[in-house]
Automatic annotation (TrEMBL):
Gene3D superfamilies found in the cross-reference section: Alkaline Phosphatase, subunit A
Keywords from the UniProt entry: Hydrolase, Signal
SUPFAM superfamilies noted in UniProt: Alkaline phosphatase-like
Domain Sulfatase N-terminal: 28-369
Gene Ontology MF terms in the entry: arylsulfatase activity; choline-sulfatase activity; glucuronate-2-sulfatase activity
Protein name according to UniProt: Choline-sulfatase
Coiled coil: none
EC number(s) from the headed UniProt entry: 3.1.6.6
Length: 501
């Protein structure tokens, strides 16, 4: 143990109110739980009307902190998972990360000043290995950051999206349980970092028979055979639309047209069945997390473990007429985020304004590990310890996986500006929302009587796109300026139609 490290650790232990000697065994463990494609609004702690039951995650929320402003920064690929996971692993911003298999490239990739060539050596697994942690991961295999994943000492990756224990989420849980059993057997006292990833609720959303039954849904494979909408199923989302009002730059991406069980359908039977499948998969994930937490408790490790629960990005499933993850509305740009661990006040809530790429800096901060010099994330430990409510004021989002420039958004306080630049379709659209007044981002189309008849939700008059409302012209101008500043600051290689070159 180096001198610097011992000082850091001593400070950390003092901060956490721990008085014991700074031995390796005292260093906190990290359990990072990552689901694939999950909207925050599925959870009761973000949406009290949700029918999804997740007692284990709800308990984590009650014992820890819930974040209302957690985001992924975006994507330059239709496989939004890929950049998201590169950001999580490296702590770097969206235009400063490598791409995968030379597909859907980040245009900045060839610039080694922006995208370091040896980046895998400075990713999560490598950093924690060097700090003396035991590192283990299980997750899906595709659309990820293979060079970073293999830095973990124990890797059990496979894509498991079936409706049985062997083919579904229980398999990922079993990999973690096996690993913990092995540690117990060998009396391994080293601190651990476990990256506990799932392949669900990403489609194909094949739930187990009993959970599908609970949510009134079936694993639907034929376009013509669906259950009648029923009371067991999730309700229609309040911001459902029969179709998105305009070509948003990637309307023909696989997720919007070819997901088994949905295809291009947005009718009530399809959407409620698919949400039921999503919930069946999410509750199954909750059960697997419960088994792992029980094991940690039995081993006496639970109280000394930081548990982070999140998803790689959100998901539409009928909201705004969309089905996939290729958009920047809150249901998809935001992620669920719950953190529990030593020094975090139970039952707390914070805005945070964090990106997933801040996780690396944060777990380094919480464990006294030096973050890598390539890190661009900001530790949100000050939020976790109640010293701050947010770590930044302005949030930037991009979707640039279809036609370019594509979509951009910026958020500050309650205000959010969204822009769509799609030259071939001659789409140049701007949306301005006050999220405190209009949290579902209702558009003029949500005021249509047929839409209201379907959702049962009548938006108030002011709950709409305010971009062209003269009362908010100054607000819009401020947000336009902020967006341009963020695009420049983050090395976004594009310029939108109405921005200065
Ligand atoms: Ca994903
Ligand atoms: Ca060990």
């Amino acid at each position: 143990m180096t001198h610097t490290y011992r000082i850091l650790l001593t400070c950390l232990l003092a901060t956490l109110g721990m008085t014991s000697l700074a031995t390796a065994a005292d260093r906190p463990n990290v359990l990072f739980i990552l689901t694939d494609d999950q909207s925050p609004f599925d959870f009761k702690f973000y949406n009290q009307d949700s029918k999804l039951d997740t007692p284990v995650i709800d308990q984590l929320a009650a014992d820890g902190m819930v974040f209302d402003g957690a985001y992924h920064m975006g994507a330059w690929s239709g496989a939004v998972c890929t950049p998201s996971r590169h950001m999580i692993m490296s702590g770097r911003t969206v235009w400063h990360i490598p791409s995968r298999l030379n597909r859907n490239r980040n245009p900045n990739e060839g610039d080694t000043a922006l995208v370091p060539q040896n980046l895998p050596d400075f990713t999560m697994g490598a950093v924690f290995n060097r700090a003396g942690y035991d590192t283990m991961r299980t997750c899906k295999k595709g659309n990820s950051y293979a060079a970073a994943n293999k830095q973990f000492t124990v890797v059990k990756d496979a894509s498991k999206r079936g409706g049985t224990d062997e083919s579904g989420s229980a398999w990922h849980g079993k990999q973690v349980l096996d690993y913990l059993n092995e540690r117990e057997k060998t009396k391994d006292e080293d601190p651990f970092l476990i990256y506990f990833g799932f392949s669900h609720p990403h489609d194909t959303r094949d739930g187990t028979p009993e959970l599908l039954e609970k949510y009134g849904s079936i694993n639907h494979t034929k376009e013509t055979k669906l259950p009648e909408p029923n009371d067991k199923q999730p309700q229609m989302p309040p911001n459902w639309l029969p179709k998105h009002p305009f070509q948003n730059s990637h309307s023909n991406v696989r997720d919007e047209v070819a997901v088994s069980g949905v295809w291009t359908n947005r009718d009530e039977a399809t959407i409620r069945n698919e949400l039921g499948r999503e919930f069946a998969c999410s509750e199954n994930i909750d059960i697997q997390i419960g088994k792992v937490l029980d094991k940690l408790e039995a081993m006496g490790e639970l109280e000394n473990t930081y548990i982070i629960y999140t998803a790689d990005h959100g998901m539409a499933i009928g909201r705004h007429g969309l089905q996939g993850k290729q958009n920047l509305y809150e249901h998809t740009w935001r992620v669920p985020l719950v953190v529990k661990g030593p020094g975090i006040e139970p039952g707390t809530r914070a805005q945070g304004n964090i990106y997933l790429l801040d996780v690396l800096a944060t777990i380094c901060d919480l464990t006294g590990v030096q973050p890598p010099e390539t890190n661009e994330g900001t530790s949100f430990k000050p939020v976790l310890t109640g010293k701050k409510d947010t770590v930044r004021d302005v949030l930037y989002g991009v979707y640039c996986g279809g036609e370019k420039p594509g979509m951009r958004c910026v958020k500050k306080g309650d205000w959010k500006l969204l822009k769509y630049d799609v030259p071939s379709a001659d789409v140049q659209e701007t949306q301005l929302f006050n999220l405190a007044e209009n949290p579902h981002e209702f558009l003029p189309q949500h005021h249509n009587k047929n839409v209201i008849a379907m959702t049962g939700v009548t938006p108030e008059k002011h709950q709409t796109n305010l971009a062209n409302d003269p009362n908010f012209a100054a607000q819009r101008q401020e947000m336009e300026t902020l967006l341009q500043e963020e695009m420049k600051r983050l090395d976004d290689p594009f310029v939108l139609w109405d921005q200065a070159k």
